[in-house]
Request: fold
Amino acid sequence: MQTISLKKLFYFEKTPLNLGIAIVTVALLAAFMAGAVAYILHGHHVYNVTRQHPWGLLIAMYVFFVVSSTGLCIISSIGHVFGIPEFQQIGKRAIAGAIITISSGFAVIGLEIGHPMTMLIYNVLTPGLTSAIWWMGTLYGLYLTFICLEFFFLAIKVNHTFSKIFGICGLLVGLAAHSNLGAVFGFLISRPSANGVFYPVYFILSAMITGCYLVFLMYGFRYKMNFPEKVSVMLVKLSKILGMLLAVLIFFEAWKILTALYGDMPERAATILHAIKHPNFWFGELILGMLIPFAIILVSNAKAIKATIYASITGMVGIFFMRYDLVHDTLLYPMTTLKRAEYQVAPSFVEYFPSAAEFAIGFGGIGLALFMYYLADKVFNLDETESAHH
Amino acid sequence: MARYGMALNYKNCINCRACESACKEENGVLLLKDHYRIWVGVKEAEGQFPNISIASQTYHPSQCQHCENAPCQQVCPTNATYYSKDGMVMVDPTKCILCTYCINACPYDARYVDNRTNTVDKCTFCSDTRLANGETTTACQATCPTKVRVFGDLDDPNSEISVLLANKEYRQVKEHLGTKPKLFYIL
Ligand code: SF4
Ligand code: SF4
Ligand code: SF4
Reply:
């Protein structure tokens, strides 16, 4: 840690890119505040969620952030938990990113849950041990503690033994927490399109992919596309890992869709068919999230780092759609039990579009993350220090 | 201890919706679009005019099924949703954090958010307003003009509902999910 004055804290080089990001960050922060105020004044009424579609954009953004966090934690562990030398340099930056993204996620979910204080009390007093949300929340609390300690021993009071121990704990608890987040959807027997073992595993896989995208973005920005040899060697390797993970994801998705459609189970097949016809899926998830990055890595044999960094932007947009669709698709089949028609109209797919307050808080969370990352980059040295080699 | 359930002679239902009104009145359910504990589902008549099959048009009153194996209870992180000693599924508003996980998990669309407590609510078989005072009917049962609803103790072999279920064929909704619903539709 370095001593730092307020003036130094808010000084940065005024390049067009930096200025642009600063303006976006401030605007998103303001949106987050405005959304939070609206929620505090009017409660859930400022959201477009309904009885039929009780989870919306904010749940999707929460998942987006914690997927990012788990992903960064997993990718960073390649270096300093598993000891692959080229990846050690990612450690501090990735763990800082993991802490920041999960904190943003908690900020967003804090404004979605009706009674966060009650949650803190009764999660402890009367724990619902059969609830995937209970496990997910409890484990993520523990995970945050571990990765904070890990960061402390990586960047503040350097101690490699401790940072490694907490790194392993953070990784294991993070994986458990994240698969439980998948189970939050996988456990829904009422929703055949989500129910099953797919999500817990898929969450880990897509987290790793998100982690790769974010490392590319952080390094692209850190080095302004001008990479020292050591960094570019690492990024080429990371790109190979990313390519492989994407291939697995594409297989996974294909089989999930085929399994869901096969046999034409009424709720399940109808839901998935409706979902995959939507541009959110084929354009958002498939083209932006998987195919563009995968094609670039494949064609360039993982060597085109700059292109991969640009593809990481489309990748993250795709990851957003994956999260949004995950929540929305689960809920779109109407559950109007025993109502086979009303005024001669059959129940139709449930519609939902986020409200202004949901957009403000959900995307405002990105502002929160950018702002915290800026501060972390100023206050700590997130690059590898020489002593970190041992 | 009792194990409460309800049998429905749904073929007698005339879709008057007196039960919906009685429920709202009895339990102070707010008059808002998403706020209802019970509802009457409609299966429209089949056929084209003038050959419409009147018999094919049926009404299906529905509500929380007080599942014996309730998904809403399993997913609740704070145990705010719990089984009462009479086997009813209840919500404790002091523990509910409004995560709405239970609304997603209920296969019967039985839960809604109550604006006054800002917590989740649903049918309670009138347990605070009637059963607690020693009454043995629910508001919807008491008001139904065609005696569609039969509420009672499934464990008491002499109760009206037990006798009815012993002698009639019935079906339950989404039985294949293993939730063991306690609403029985008499065929
Ligand atoms: S009160 Fe009885 S007849 Fe009227 S809608 Fe309700 S269940 Fe049907
Ligand atoms: S019908 Fe729904 S709310 Fe009622 S007990 Fe069953 S799962 Fe729970
Ligand atoms: S909304 Fe309330 S009752 Fe429902 S699962 Fe969450 S805490 Fe439990």
Summary: The pocket of iron/sulfur cluster (ligand 2) is lined by residues B 64-67, 70-72, 89, 106, 108, 110-111, 122, 179 (CB under 6 Å). The CA atoms of residues 49 and 55 of chain A lie 6 Å apart. The longest helix of chain A spans residues 229-261. DSSP finds 13 helices and no strands in chain A.
